[in-house]
Amino acid sequence: MTVQTQHGEPKLSLRERNRLRTRRELLDAALEVFSEDGFGSATVEKIAERAGAAKGTLYTYFPQGREQLFCELYEEINNELIDKATEIYSGAEGGDFSSRLVAMSEAVVDVAERPMLGRFYAIDDPSLDQALPPVRGHASSVIAQHIAKDYAATVSRQPRSRSAVAPESIAMLLTGALTAALSTVARGTQSRDDVCRAIAAVAAGLMSST
């Protein structure tokens, strides 16, 4: 039973707290297994064993098994990136178009540099095409919307803008670059500094052409 605290906030019962802890332990175990084995080789049995739980317990919390676990973990990272994008593009980070784009690239690289998280988010497995449609592209689409709006506003302030490129096309290409950057940093083929310098150079070139 959930009761209210003196401030009106819900106070969870011991049973509810235990359920939340078990659920988190299963998600954390899944993150470890997916990061190590990818999606295709990860099994419900191994995830349950890693969490110290029975296979039946895992299905009690995640009836759709590894697909549901993967989607929930993926969406957690999506939401982190969306929150950061909202912070950057709501003006909290200040600066101009280029500095905001670099700040967004740094947020993406922050995810990539966390070993398990980066490897997990960068998993590329054809079998995910059926598992991920509900969440794949969620963060990218939101980030692209922010970039497109920011680019359009920046161009509109230029007295003699030469740009005839649709902001949505610019945003699509830049978001693709950020996605690629996450994968390369997570796999260790590019460094954080390399990626951020490259994004800064692209942004500078883009602004010089407007």
Automatic annotation (TrEMBL):
UniProt keyword list: DNA-binding, Transcription, Transcription regulation
Keyword Signal recorded: no
PROSITE patterns with a match to the protein in the record: HTH_TETR_2
InterPro entries the record matches: Homeodomain-like_sf (IPR009057), HTH-type_TetR-like_transc_reg (IPR050109), HTH_TetR (IPR001647)
Domain HTH tetR-type: 20-80
A Pfam family annotated for this UniProt entry: TetR_N
DNA-binding region(s) in UniProt: 43-62
Keyword check for Acyltransferase: no
SUPFAM superfamilies: Homeodomain-like
Protein's UniProt name: TetR/AcrR family transcriptional regulator
Source organism of the structure: Mycolicibacterium komossense
